[in-house]
Amino acid sequence: xxxxxxxxxxIGAAVASALRTAGHRVIGVDLRDAEVCADLSTSDxxxxxxxxxxxxxxxxDGLVLCAGVGPHVPDPMQIIEVNYRGAVEVLDGLFPxxxxxxxxxxxSASTMVRWADNPISRGTEAAALADAGxxxxxxxxxxxxxxxxxxxxxxxxxxxxxGVRLNTVAPGAVDTPLLxxxxxxxxxxxxxxxxxxxxxxxxxxxxxxxxxxxxxxHAGYIHGAQFAIDGGSDALMRPTEF
Length: 242
Ligand code: NAI
Hints:
It is globular and about 45 Å long. Helix 3 runs parallel beside helix 5. The chain contains ten helices and seven strands. The chain has one domain: NAD(P)-binding Rossmann-like Domain (Rossmann fold). A seven-stranded parallel β-sheet has the order 3-2-1-4-5-6-7, sandwiched between helices. The chain is of the alpha/beta class. The mean pLDDT is 97. The longest helix has 19 residues. Bound molecules: 1,4-dihydronicotinamide adenine dinucleotide (NAI). 1,4-dihydronicotinamide adenine dinucleotide binds next to helix 1, helix 3 and helix 7. 1,4-dihydronicotinamide adenine dinucleotide (NAI) binds next to helix 1, helix 3 and helix 7. It holds the Pfam family adh_short_C2.
């Protein structure tokens, strides 16, 4: 049994579909159209999500954290609550039940800030966002994804000792409803003007294939890693940093 958050749309829906095609049973978690309907932007919702999954499967073969919102949503704190706390609290809440592996969907945006400069590292994100003006959504998104990647890396010893692997994928622009909403927002021109070396958007199915690989037995020595799946953007922008 594999739990997938954000299973109702985009990358999460593609992951759930690929896993079911491969013969796995999937517990989808989402706001709606899922086995467990819960709002990961609140503490109560996160507790309900964890409880709902454990009610259906006291032991899990895998966990995939896809639920997220983009930089365009009106309340930037919502971005941090869903993308960061909605990932990390579910990760920690389900860790005792996990027997296999977990993958969290971070983003290429995770590398746009250093952890030492990330207000989430000091718990000052609300104050920092109050001063951020028109860039608040963009900053909150980068901070939330940087914090998810750091949280995964910080868990590598404890999870490894328990025999549970944990990795992140960092997509660039992937053609999903989240990207379409971004294109329709004030960030649309910036998204359109950037072209990765592979000059197209990724597909949810391409990201799902990587996630399914990372969950599976052929990835048995991959732990604590972040995989860019971005058409070459990370190498283009940061050729000497890796
Ligand atoms: P999507 O909008 O198609 O799917 C996101 C899912 O998360 C939706 O089903 C939505 O209902 C769910 N969700 C949102 N808020 C929630 C909440 N409060 N509680 C429970 N579920 C909630 O978006 P997409 O593109 O599939 O995004 C999946 C992940 O990939 C997100 O974490 C996103 O940040 C990340 N990502 C997406 C990229 C893209 O270009 N599409 C690029 C890099 C990362």
